[in-house]
Amino acid sequence: MYPPTARTTPNRSRDMMSYDRTAAHAVLDEAYHCALGFTVDGEPRVLPTLHVRIGDTLYLHGSTGSRPLLAARGDGLPVCVSVTLLDGLVYARSQFHHSANYRSVVALGTARLVTDEREKTAMLTALVEKVAAGRSTDSRPPSRRELAETAVLALPLREVAVRSRTGGVREDEADLHLPHWAGVLPLRLTAGLPEPAAGVTAPLPAYLRAARTPWHDPAPMAGAHVWLEPLDLAHADELHAATAEEEVWRHLGIALPTEPAGTAAVVAGALAAQHRGERVPWVQRCAVTGAVVGTTSYYEIDPERRSVAIGHTFLGRPWWRTGINTEAKLLLLGRAFDELGAVRVAWHTDLRNERSQAAIERLGATREGVLRMHRQRSDGSWRDTVQYAMTVDEWPNAQVRLRERLRRTAPVA
Fold first, then answer.
1. How far apart are CA 215 and CA 306, in angstroms?
2. Which residues form a coiled coil (predicted)?
């Protein structure tokens, strides 16, 4: 516990206050930025800045030319740091009782300017790790010049208070009969789809991929014919070169992209669906040459019912009937049935796509029926979809047959 002081003891609503060290640290660690309050020449200043906690010290990031950092030289700078996490908006029947659910921390004290290079480096590393665990080893460390241009304040966490509100609506009994909606609108900070900078060719790091369930994890898989790795925008140019042929796209729901940018848009759409939890896309690489040759995905992912579909597959024509598609499906089926515990895997294909239907049947899947006017084609017409499926009871025999087929197919460069 932090000891209450005259400055951290409120005049009202004391039931909302806490001095719990663990609760204070949790708020500071969850928040990415804080408000730094101080005075300069008798004038109040409040600046937003980044922070990170190491033990019982709060470090604040700044520039060597900023006012608080200049003022901190010598005996230090008296500061007030506040952090607020907004958890929800509270709607009452009366305007007076509207409120918010939140968790906040106020820390008071004298901040010192960090001059030790090792301490400054440790702070900057911790700050980068806070953004994403593992990022400090996945980026260039600061140079000596950059360290010299960066200023850091250190505030010992001694005078600290936590204030929070949780729960529902609190209003007068006389208002309960009013015909207005009342309740709580929960709020939370959620990450969007990462947007790579121009010229980036490195794949999206695992720590920036949305964490969901093992069913949503594009785990890398490797065989003698094909490697499956998480699809990324960095694959777009190679994917375009490998699949830029009308026959490859004929029965897909997307028209043949005429430029690499069009294929990049297709990849971006797949990644957006992955971010929403609707799809798990992989790129297919030739195991012999390492070349990108196609893509495939899980979709209709339902961990509760233990089922998944395989599709959104397209493969460059030179690699048709080479064992790549068969082995890719074998890897995806093995992951679904043997690792994820699926009881059913499905496929969907255009009724007019006889080649795809024959390929699915060769996998050992059972034709279950036709879904009429199921999806739209790229030209706007409606397609009838043939649905296939394989169950966990059928998987052992199907696996034996697929492995036997692959043994008769030598990997092709």
1. 9
2. none
